[in-house]
Structures are given as C-alpha cells and as structure tokens.
C-alpha cells in the first residue's frame, strides 16, 4: 500500500433494542444523532470532508440513499457527494474499506464513513396477492367494477409479512441466519452450555465496560423528539446467568436446536461513524489520528455456513502481513451468534481445516478469550446489521488504546455467505 | 441552499406578462400582449414594498378610463416586487387628516375599486407573498385570485384600531363564509395559501412558473371560482336573515369583549355592528364602512396603536446590519435556555445547547419541537430546525460558537465559574452574553477575560411569544458587540432594546414595583382577583398577581432582592409569606400552583369589583416613575424606546401607546402630584422621581 490511511476519530449512538414497535429514530436520524457531535468535537469544517459513505441495509422509503440525506442534514453542504453501500451485515465496514480505497487511489483525502440501521423500522411487507388486489382495485373504472373486485378480497391479504424475518433468511438456501448457526454448532460440536456461557460473558463484559466508563467518547448520547435522552446500550443484562439462559427455548429449530434468543445477537437500532483520512489530510488539518488502517479483506463461502467467513477473511491478511495468532493483540469478531463465534475459534484451532481451507501448514492457533471481544459484543448490545462492521472497527481501536495494545483485527460474518476483516494498528 | 448552480441561475423572475418590459408610469407598469391580455404590475418607486396609497389608486383610475373604453380580453393585476403583493394602506397618509377628508378620500377609493370590479372583461389578481389590508382589498375587487404558493391574505387593520376601509368588509363577507370572513377581520390573522384556498379567497394555487398559464386559464373561463359567500352553503344562506346574524353577532361580541374590551378597543365592536346591521345589503354596508372607518381613525386608541406600529418599526431599525453570528452556543437547558436555543435554531442559526443534565437536554428537544409547531413550521422545516439544534452535554459548541449565551440559574458564583471555564475556549471574536434578569453585569464581568465582548441578552418568557430582547451593555462593552447583538435580534426576528447595565435593567426595573405593590395590597387584605382586575381595567394584558405566578415567584424574588440591594429608591418590602411560598415550592405556573391554581391553565380573575382608582394608581404610577428614573439615568435612550420595550416585553396596554405616552397624556404635573399624594398616604416608595419636575 502506497499511502498511509488513518482513522482520526469515531462515535456511535447508544444501541437501542427493538421493542416490538418502530423506535424513536429512523436510519438517517440515527446517523445524524451521532454524526453531529462527532463533527462538532473535531477541528474540522464541512468543506474539509470530501466524501460521505454510509452502510445501511434496511433503507426506508423516505430516505433513499441515506448517506446523502444524512450528509445534507448534517450540514455538510449541497456539494457533498455521498453514497450508500450495502453488503448486508458488513456494510458498516464496507464503508470504511471503500473510503480507504478511494483515498489510496488519491482521489479523496478525508472521508466520513459510517453505518446505520433501524431494525425496529424494518418494513411490514404486503403479500404479493394483496399487492395485486390493490393494483386491480386502483385500475377499476367505475363503482360496479370496484364492487365486483371487493368480492375477491381475502382476509389473509391483511396478514402482513414482517420484512425483517424475510431479510434474515438466505434466499439461496432458504435457511434463516439462526439455522446457519445451528449448522455450525453441529459441524464444530458446539454444545448449548458452551454457547450460553459465551453469551453470559458477553453481557457481563459489556456491563463492566459501561460501569467503568470505557465507552465514554465512543458513545455520544442521543435525544428524541418526545424528550427522551439515551446514553447507554439498553439490551445489556448485567445479571444474566446460566440458569436463566438455560430456560430459553431454541428460537429457530424447535425443539432440539441450540441457538436461543439468549445466545444470539439482538435486533437493535444504532449508527456509527468514523473519520478516515490520508496522511496528507492529517498533516494539513492538524489532526491527531488514533489508528492506521493497515489491511482489509473480503471472503465468500456457501451461504449455509456463512458464520465461518471471518476465518476466511482474516487468514489472507495474516498471511500478507506475516502475522501469527500471537501477533494479534485484540480481536473483534461480530457476535451474530455465540455458536458461530465459537465455531470460528474452533476452525482456527483445527489443523485439518486450516490446511485444507486456508492453505496453512498447520492450525492458525487458539484465539485467547482474553483477547476476543474484550468488552462484549452483539449478543449483549445488539446487531444493527448495517452498523456493526463500523462499530467493531471503532471499538477495536478504542480497546487497543485503553489496554495499551498495538494491533487488532475486526471481522464479521455476513448473511448470504460472506465475511469481512480489517487490520488496524494504534498510532 | 445557495450553491453556484442556483446562484448562477439567479432568482426566479416574476411573471409580469406584457408588463415585463413596459416603462413605469407613476406606480404602475402596463402592457398588452398579442393574446389580448393586459398586464398591470404595481411597482412603487424607491421602495421594495408596495403600499396602496392615494396615488396608486388615482393612477389606477386613469388606466381604468382606457380599459373601460377599450376592454381587453382580460386584465391581470400583480406586484412587480419580489417581496409580495402589497402591505396595505399607507398609514402615514392618514396622519393629521380630519374625518371628513378621510371619508372623502376613501369614497374616491371605493369608486375606483368598484370600477375595477365592474370592468366587462375578466379581472385576475395574481398574489405572491402578502396581500394585506388595502392590498387584499384590491385583490378582492378582481374576479379571480391566483395565489402563488406561499401567498397570504389578511386584514391587520384591527391591530391599528381600525377595520378594513376600502371595501374589505362587504367584499370579503360577500365572497366567503361570512363567519370566517368576520374571524379574519376581527383577529387580524393571515390566511396562508392553503387556508386561503379552502376559504375560497384564492381560486387557483400554483407555482410562479405556471402563473401565465393559470392567468390564461382564468381569462378563458376554464377555472371555477371558489368563493361561496352569499351564494354558498346553508349557514351563509341563513346569515342573510338579520335574526340569524344577530345571534352570531352576539357570540362574536362576547368573545371579542374578553380579548379586546370595547372601552379600550372600539374597532372590532364597530365591525360587528356594521355586519349585524348591513350584512345583507352591500351598498348600505359600503356607506357604513366608510363612515365607521373615518370615525375610528380619529379615536385615541387608533392613534396610539399606530404609535405602537411605529415604535416597532423604530426598534426594528436598531436591529439592522450584519451580526456575523452563524453558530450560537447556549449554556443551560432550563426553560429559558431551551426556548432561546429552539428559537435561534428555528431562525436558521446553528445551535448547540449544553447542560450537564441529559434529561434537561431531552426536554429541550421536545420544547424545540413545540416551538416549531407553534410557528406553523412544516415537517421538513421542523426537522431542519431540530437538526440545527444539537444537545451538547460535552460542550463541544463553545469552540465553534460566534455567540455564547449563558442561561443558567441566577447564581452569580455559578455564572462566573462557567465564564472562567469557557472564556479560554471561545473563538477570539466570539461574544459572551448572559440572559440574567436580576444580576448586575458589572459584577459578573469580573470573571470575563475580554470585557468588551461581554454583554447582556435578556429574553423574556415565553421566548416564542415575547418579541423584545434587552441588549445590555456595561461600561466596557464595545459598540461592535452591542451592534452585533442588536443585529442578531433582527435576524432571529426579535426586537432589540439597547439598555445600560442597571438594577433590573429597563423592563424589570419598571415591572418590579408593579408586582411588589400587588404583594403589599394582598398583605393589606385586598383580594387577589380585585388587584388583578384593577390592572386589567387599566388595560394590562395580565394582572400583577397572575403575572407573578406566570414569571415564577422564585424569579420575582430574585429580581426583587437584587433591586432592593442595588437601588437608591425604596422598593416595597417582600412579605415573608411570599418567601414561604417559594420555599414550599408553590412557585406559580411552572409548579402548577402559586397564588392561583394553574392546573387547568391560565386562571381568570373574573368580573366584579376592580377596586378604587387609588388602587390602580398604586399599581401603575410606580411603573411610570421607574420609567422616568431610567430615562433620567440614561438606562434607555428615549421615551419611544421605553414605551416600545414595555409594550413588546410586557404587553403594557398597547392602546395607551406606552407608559411614557400615557404619562404625557395624563400630564407630567399630574403624575408627579398623584405620586406625591400616594407617598404621603402609603410611604416613601411613591416619592416622585426628580425627572418629573425637570421634564415638566
């Protein structure tokens, strides 16, 4: 890589668990809520930012190209080019990676790259037959035709299909995401108890990080029109224990499955932004970078085992950079499912797997739990799909700095059978 | 947005049809196009705003001579001013005329508009921006009205102690639902585009780019007229009968009496009489309108309300110029801070609002949404305003702000601590302003690094309703600072009153004796309702006991204590029971309970005994005395400023033209003598200021 690329700063909203009705913020609202304080705290003016890239999966009808809507609402000016990227669960990291590529190419210097998602606003979709019925009704030319048409109305037309459910189902294999985690649990021998223990840990780690104030600066509070202030991730259950987790029923493959609501990521709203800059921009504007973005990689595999993609995405980076498992100080692996993260760990430790799939001579090695998701993950704070990739990069850097460490990898699995990984170094 | 593309494309030019390139003759430009349509554009020389003056009408009359002889296919009337159609009659023309002259002038005007209405060809008024008063009447004389999106129609005459006088009373009641028409004229409220279309005032609503096509369509008779009026629905039909009208008029009268008592505000009542008697007879109503208008012009109320209009214009003039303020940072998200922040953001400023209390910041966002709603902002405008206002618990805004407004509780040590914390982070040319209402700036400024850029910016509660802002300067405040702050007031649509640092500044110095005398009266055993009624009888918008509750008893106490310590003159003693009320949390409106119970909204002191004239004088004269003191000590510049400040900050009986105007009307000698008498009966707090004798 010819040009040094830096992460200058970043902030995210608190993550708000979806509670059965649309939350107080749309995707762009969320992006504005954390973008405003981030831009206010940096010594930057709107003119200095030359590109805005935002990851978002569930775009709502009122906010087509949410990146541009957010850029204008953030006051970045009518001449601010902004586009939205989407690779499903990796979109928030794709925005950073795209920024890096544009900067490396020399066309841009200072990019606002983020991710946003309001899963509580995921659309309610009408059945196809119902849509057809409405369309014919609209075409009816007179009262008589309309009256005739009303007879074709069926009660199930009013049964909505929840768009989110469909979005979390892979159309090729017709497996929903939870089922892909069941496949991995089966293939890598992850039992229910191990998965639950991992999940409990995630909650405890996040609760500790909140109590210790380690998320200060990473989270900027947000405020809704109805007068509420939000400053904490609200999905965390600090008193989570093995007994209560054990009581939960499998969510996706009843009655024998191992993947439960307790050991899966939560359905959540949230946004995150980082500022990505060239070395020249850092110097010119007197910025203080917090990390260097060293390398990135995307990988793809069969959708039914999508959860294993972090293993495939991180391996080429390690090979290119000549890094062994001990050289990576911290890992952020997005916790789509406890079984899925644990399956990745198992695969890295599996010499056969590493030889056959990754082309290594031996097992990559064991990732120490003390280096992995040190402040919890999506199981405790939720997984706003377009945002998570951005959040894990930002939090990785913040955790490295807090712990006085140097190098880390952030990586996520992506619904549809892909994965992304990014290597960062504290400066 | 003002990027290079739109800048290059320039302003959207008004469609003036054949009048576009026609030379201006007097106030009009006129041209006839190949399609047979005559376009007449009103284009008053040397001004950006059209008014309907005598000359405008006489020149229209000359044009009508030709149009009557040689009628075109259609006539289109519109304004050539980008700002709007016309602002109404030229008030200055009426000053000094006697009623007969006015009546004669109006009669001439009526004849001209009637001729316009009687032209055999279709007549079409195109209205963009505002068509007010005489401008509205001109548009009403046409057959069709095309409203360009954003247009508004209204009769603000009632605010000047008048009602429409150029045919508006019978033309509007003849065009649309009579009760709706009366509402518009009685309240002086504007009907914006959508409402104007709904009521039938506007026949077409369109964008500027389609004006020519819309005019053509009207000329070709392709557009249906929307006005209902006498031809309209059942209700309007019934109002043709005098008995039904009598019933409706009675309701209007009782409602109007509550808000504008006849004794103080005769105009709306005259309008109701007019309609009740002649609502079914156009020519009788026309004649009665003329006479009634001429009578009203001569009333003291009208003259005083015209004075209020001019006072506002004068204060606005002080707000001209550039403020150089793009970003405002407000410290303290209490009631005042939140409203100031919301208001500034709504008026286009980038705004950060800091407070340590996240819940207070949350509430401020809700407040801001309410302020936007109150100003009838649309969904997108409200969103933009809320986006511009960022709750800022970490105080990031201090480094970016061009103006920092401190609005924390009235504790000097808290304020100075904040100044010490933020001064070092502020931009080198940024202004620090305090919203204090009771602390002397001279003392606060000791904690400020650059005293030249420190001043007071005293908003009144509620910020969204009260138009005045006191711009307070200390000896060290630079002229550029006060000028920028006054300009800032102009940009955010407030009226600045420049004042000198003085206990209570101008407005609270005047108001405090009024409030405290009310407390003394309560102490003497007078009923609170009687005290309030005495003030209402004088014409105050709110009695002093209600006002104390409204402002907040805790704040009253702060101001009173501050004044007591700082002033040479004695102020009434604050009764102990008032302190107890504050201690117990009965601080007034915000607590739901003070002197009155506020749980069901604003209390009503009701009708009945309003005390003796002595009682009224005890409340009102100390205010006049404080005004004189402020003038003598140059706290304010002149009587007009004092009067304007009191009217726009406290609602001081507008029909009396302001406290100093009232003092002149009553006679300075009498005011002084009365104060002297009161001081002999009630104590030295009434001893007249030495300014009275000097000024005579």
From TrEMBL, chain A:
NCBIfam families: AcCoA-C-Actrans, PRK08170.1. It comes from the Bacteria. Residues 287-425 form the Thiolase C-terminal domain. This is Beta-ketoadipyl-CoA thiolase. Its EC number is 2.3.1.174. InterPro entries: Thiolase, Thiolase-like, Thiolase_C, Thiolase_CS, Thiolase_N. The keyword Transferase applies. Residues 6-278 form the Thiolase N-terminal domain. Keywords: Acyltransferase, Transferase. Belongs to the thiolase-like superfamily. Thiolase family. GO terms for molecular function: 3-oxoadipyl-CoA thiolase activity. Gene3D superfamilies: 3.40.47.10. It holds the Pfam family Thiolase_N. The active site is at residues 89, 383, 413. Transmembrane segments: none annotated. It is an enzyme of class 2 (transferase). SUPFAM superfamilies: Thiolase-like. It comes from Jannaschia seosinensis.
UniProtKB/TrEMBL annotation, chain B:
Residues 592-613 are annotated as: Disordered. One of its GO terms (molecular function) is enoyl-CoA hydratase activity. Keywords: Fatty acid metabolism, Lipid degradation, Lipid metabolism, Lyase, Multifunctional enzyme, NAD, Oxidoreductase. InterPro entries: 3-OHacyl-CoA_DH_CS, 3-OHacyl-CoA_DH_NAD-bd, 3HC_DH_C, 6-PGluconate_DH-like_C_sf, ClpP/crotonase-like_dom_sf, Enoyl-CoA_hydra/iso, FA_oxidation_alpha_subunit, NAD(P)-bd_dom_sf. Pfam families: 3HCDH, 3HCDH_N, ECH_1. It catalyses: a (3S)-3-hydroxyacyl-CoA + NAD(+) = a 3-oxoacyl-CoA + NADH + H(+). Gene3D superfamilies: 1.10.1040.50, 2-enoyl-CoA Hydratase, Chain A, domain 1, NAD(P)-binding Rossmann-like Domain. This is enoyl-CoA hydratase. It comes from Jannaschia seosinensis.
């Amino acid at each position: 890589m010819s040009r040094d690329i830096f992460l200058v700063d970043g902030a995210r909203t608190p993550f708000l668990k979806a509670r059965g009705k649309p939350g107080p913020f749309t995707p762009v609202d969320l992006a504005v809520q954390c973008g405003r304080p981030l831009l206010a705290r940096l010594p930057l003016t709107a003119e200095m930012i030359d590109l805005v890239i935002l990851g978002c999966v569930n775009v709502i009808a009122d906010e087509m190209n949410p990146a541009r809507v957010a850029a204008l609402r953030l006051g970045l000016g009518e001449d601010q080019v902004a586009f939205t990227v989407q690779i499903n669960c990796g979109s928030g990291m794709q925005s950073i990676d795209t920024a890096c590529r544009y900067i490396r190419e020399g066309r841009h210097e200072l990019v606002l790259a983020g991710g946003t998602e309001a899963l509580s606003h995921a659309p309610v979709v009408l059945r196809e037959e119902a849509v057809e019925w409405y369309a014919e009704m609209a075409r009816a030319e007179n009262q008589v035709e309309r009256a005739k048409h009303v007879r074709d109305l069926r009660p199930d037309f009013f049964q909505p299909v929840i768009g989110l459910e469909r979005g979390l189902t892979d159309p090729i294999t017709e497996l929903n995401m939870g089922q892909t985690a069941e496949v991995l649990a089966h293939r890598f021998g992850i039992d229910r108890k191990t998965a639950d223990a991992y999940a409990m840990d995630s909650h405890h780690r996040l609760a500790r990080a909140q109590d210790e104030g380690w998320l200060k600066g990473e989270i900027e509070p947000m405020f809704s029109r109805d007068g509420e202030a939000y400053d904490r991730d609200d999905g965390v259950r600090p008193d989570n224990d093995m007994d209560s987790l054990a009581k939960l029923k499998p969510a996706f493959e009843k009655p024998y499955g191992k993947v439960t609501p307790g050991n899966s990521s939560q359905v959540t709203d949230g946004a995150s932004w980082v500022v990505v800059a060239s070395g020249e921009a850092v110097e010119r504007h007197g910025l203080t970078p917090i990390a260097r973005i060293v390398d990135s990689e995307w990988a793809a595999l069969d959708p039914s085992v999508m959860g294993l993609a972090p293993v495939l995405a991180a391996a080429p980076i390690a090979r290119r950079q000549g890094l062994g498992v001990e050289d990576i100080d911290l890992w952020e692996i997005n916790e789509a499912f406890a079984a899925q993260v644990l399956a990745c760990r198992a695969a890295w430790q599996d010499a056969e797997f590493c030889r056959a799939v990754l082309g290594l001579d031996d097992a990559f090695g064991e990732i120490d739990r003390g280096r992995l998701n040190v402040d919890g993950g999506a199981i405790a704070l939720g997984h706003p799909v377009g945002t998570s990739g951005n959040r894990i990069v930002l939090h990785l850097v913040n955790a490295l700095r807090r712990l006085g460490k140097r190098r880390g990898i952030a990586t996520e699995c992506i619904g549809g059978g892909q994965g992304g990984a990014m290597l960062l170094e504290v400066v | 947005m003002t990027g290079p593309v739109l800048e290059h494309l320039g302003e959207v030019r008004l469609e003036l049809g054949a009048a576009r390139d026609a030379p201006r003759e007097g106030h009009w430009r006129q041209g006839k196009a190949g399609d047979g349509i005559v376009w007449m554009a009103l284009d008053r020389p040397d001004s950006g705003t059209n008014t309907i003056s005598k000359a405008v009408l006489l020149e229209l009359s000359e044009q009508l001579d030709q149009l009557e002889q040689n009628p075109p296919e259609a006539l289109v009337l519109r304004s050539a001013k980008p700002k709007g159609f016309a602002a109404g009659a030229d008030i200055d023309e009426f000053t000094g005329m006697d009623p007969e002259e006015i009546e004669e002038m109006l009669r001439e005007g009526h004849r001209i508009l009637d001729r316009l209405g009687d032209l055999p060809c279709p007549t079409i008024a195109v209205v963009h921006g505002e068509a007010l008063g005489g401008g509205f009447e001109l548009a009403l004389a046409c057959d069709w009205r095309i409203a360009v999106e954003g247009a508004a129609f209204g009769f603000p005459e009632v605010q000047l102690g008048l009602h429409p006088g150029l045919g508006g009373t019978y033309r509007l009641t003849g065009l649309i639902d009579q009760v709706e028409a009366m509402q518009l004229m009685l309240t002086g409220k504007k009907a914006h585009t959508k409402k104007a279309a709904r009521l039938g005032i506007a026949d077409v609503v369109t964008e500027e780019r389609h004006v020519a096509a819309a005019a053509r369509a009207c000329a070709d008779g392709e557009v249906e007229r929307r006005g209902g009026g006498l031809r309209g629905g059942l209700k309007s039909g019934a109002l043709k009968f005098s008995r039904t009208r009598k019933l409706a008029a009675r309701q209007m009268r009782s409602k109007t009496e509550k808000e504008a008592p006849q004794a103080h505000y005769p105009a709306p009542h005259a309008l109701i009489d007019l309609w009740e008697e002649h609502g079914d007879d156009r020519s009788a109503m026309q004649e009665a309108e003329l006479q009634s208008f001429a009578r009203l012009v001569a009333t003291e109320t009208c003259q005083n309300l015209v004075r209020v209009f001019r006072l506002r214009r004068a204060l606005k003039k002080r707000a001209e110029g550039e403020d150089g303020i793009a970003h405002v940072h407000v410290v303290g998200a209490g009631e005042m801070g939140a409203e100031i922040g919301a208001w500034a953001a709504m008026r286009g400023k980038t705004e950060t609002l800091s407070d340590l209390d996240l819940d207070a910041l949350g509430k401020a966002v809700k407040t801001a949404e309410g302020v936007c709603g109150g100003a009838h902002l649309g969904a997108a405008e409200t969103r933009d305003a809320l986006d511009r206002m960022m709750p800022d618990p970490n105080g990031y805004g201090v480094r970016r702000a061009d103006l920092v407004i401190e609005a924390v509780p009235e504790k000097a040590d808290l304020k100075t601590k904040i100044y010490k914390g933020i001064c070092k982070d502020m931009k080198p040319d940024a202004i620090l302003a305090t919203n204090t209402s009771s602390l002397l700036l001279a003392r606060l400024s000791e904690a400020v690094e650059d005293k030249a850029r420190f001043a007071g910016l005293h908003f009144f509660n509620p910020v969204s309703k009260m138009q005045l802002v006191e711009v307070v300067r200390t000896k060290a405040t630079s002229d550029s600072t006060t000028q920028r702050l006054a300009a800032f007031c102009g940009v955010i649509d407030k009226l600045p009153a420049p004042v000198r640092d003085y206990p209570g500044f101008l407005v609270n110095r005047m108001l405090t004796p009024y409030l405290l005398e009310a407390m003394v009266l309560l102490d003497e055993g007078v009923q609170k309702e009687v005290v309030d009624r005495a003030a209402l009888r004088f014409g105050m918008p709110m009695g002093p006991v209600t006002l104390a509750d409204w402002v907040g008893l805790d704040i009253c106490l702060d101001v009173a204590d501050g004044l007591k310590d700082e002033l040479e003159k004695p102020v009434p003693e604050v009764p102990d029971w008032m302190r107890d009320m504050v201690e117990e949390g009965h601080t007034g409106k915000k607590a739901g309970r003070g002197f009155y119970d506020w749980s069901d909204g604003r209390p009503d002191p009701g009708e009945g005994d309003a005390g003796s004239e002595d009682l009224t004088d005890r409340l009102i004269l100390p205010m006049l005395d404080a005004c004189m003191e402020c003038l003598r000590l140059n706290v304010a510049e002149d009587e007009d400023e004092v009067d304007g400040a009191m009217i726009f900050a406290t609602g001081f009986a507008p029909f009396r033209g302001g406290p100093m105007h009232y003092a002149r009307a009553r006679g300075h000698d009498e005011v002084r003598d009365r104060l002297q008498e009161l001081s002999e009966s009630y104590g030295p707090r009434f001893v007249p200021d030495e300014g009275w004798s000097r000024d005579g």
